[in-house]
Design goal:
The protein is α/β, with parallel strands linked by helices. The chain has helices at 24-33, 55-66, 76-82, 93-101, 124-137, 163-176, and strands at residues 19-20, 37-41, 49-50, 53-54, 70-72, 89-90, 116-120, 142-145, 156-157. Helix 1 runs parallel beside helix 6 and helix 2 (55-66) runs parallel beside helix 6 (163-176).
């Protein structure tokens, strides 16, 4: 059963919490509507196996299928390069969060700010902090987390999911290919 309770206890997210995306179709609709999405991948994506594949493989497929630029944080770039994906921009997670909060940042390609930031594979507490900063100081950016744990500071989050349900959700996002 999927729940929408913060995975980490002790910090209170406040009255504004993430909308729960119980179905991958909702995440698909968000990504489709975004004019300029960006995918921020943390180093944990290379070490988390979701069913029979690593999370980073799902994220590469998602980025390629949707044409979403990727920011590699931590050691994610090494894992991406090891899979033949060399188009990622290397940046620390905190720097990515600060740049996304800046309305004047022209993005990785110089074409303007992003309207949807998709996060996955960062340590929970770090993602919590970055998303909190974006929630309070970057109303121009909506955030989506694709991790299997609910992130209350995101604009939209999957609920707490089993690895089996998480794999189904990720596969559904990739299969839709932005059609």
């Amino acid at each position: 059963m999927a729940t929408a309770e913060p995975w980490q206890f002790g910090e209170i997210p406040g009255p504004k919490k993430a909308a729960v995306l119980a179905k991958p179709e909702a995440a698909d609709a968000l990504i489709k509507r975004a004019k300029r999405p960006v995918l921020v991948i943390g180093g944990l994506a290379a070490g988390v196996t979701v069913k029979d594949r690593q999370l980073i493989d799902y994220l590469i497929d998602l980025g390629k299928a949707r044409g979403i630029p990727i920011v590699a944080t931590g050691n994610a770039n090494r894992a991406l390069a090891g899979r033949g994906y060399n188009e990622a921009t290397i940046m620390t997670a905190m720097d990515a969060g600060q740049r996304l909060a800046d309305r004047n940042w022209k993005g990785l390609d110089g074409k303007g700010p992003y309207d949807l930031a998709i996060f996955a594979g960062l340590p929970y507490y770090m993602e919590w902090t970055i998303l909190s900063g974006l929630k309070h100081f970057a109303p121009h950016v909506r955030t989506l987390t694709l991790d299997n744990v609910y992130q209350p500071h995101a604009s939209f989050s999957f609920p707490n999911l089993s690895f089996q349900d998480w794999a189904k959700a990720l596969n559904a996002l990739i299969a839709r290919r932005g059609d």
